[in-house]
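Sample pair:
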Amino acid sequence: MGVRVSFDGACQPARGGGIATWAFVVEGEGLDTEGSGLAAPAGSPEATNNVAEYSGALRGLEYLLQRGYRGPVVLQGDSQLVIRQLEGGYRVRAAHLRPLNDRVRSALACFQSFQLRWVPREENERANELTQEALRRARRTGPTGLSEGARDPRRRGAH
C-alpha cells in the first residue's frame, strides 16, 4: 500500500467533559508528517475518547487529500471501536459519532483503495505519544494553548 496513516485519540476523563486530543502519523510517498490537536472544546460533552480517535483518523486523511494524494491508503489505529465501525462490523450507536463516521468514510472513498487495520497500542506508539503530548500541553497551557484543529506537523525523512 502507498501511504499509512496511524491515528490515535486520548481524553481525560475518557467519558467526556474533559480534554480530548487527536494525533496522526503519515508515512509514505514523500508525505511523511505528524499532527495533533484538540478534538473538541475542552469541558464539552463532545470531548470524549471516541471523538478524539475519529478526529485523528479524519485529520490524517484530510492531510492527504489537501495535498492531492488519492493513491492507496492503510488507515490504522488502536481503537477497535472506530476500526470496526468503519468496517461496518459494529453499528454506530452514539449519535454524536455518526457525523464523524460519515466524514471518515467519505474521505476514504476519495482514495484509489484503502485498508482498515486495528493494531495493538504497542504498534501505534508514535501516534499515542503525540496524543499524550497534546494532553500534557493542553493541561499545562490551558485548552486555549492548543487550539481545536491545530496541527503540529513535524516533517520526517522518507522511509
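The first strand starts at residue 3 and ends at 12.
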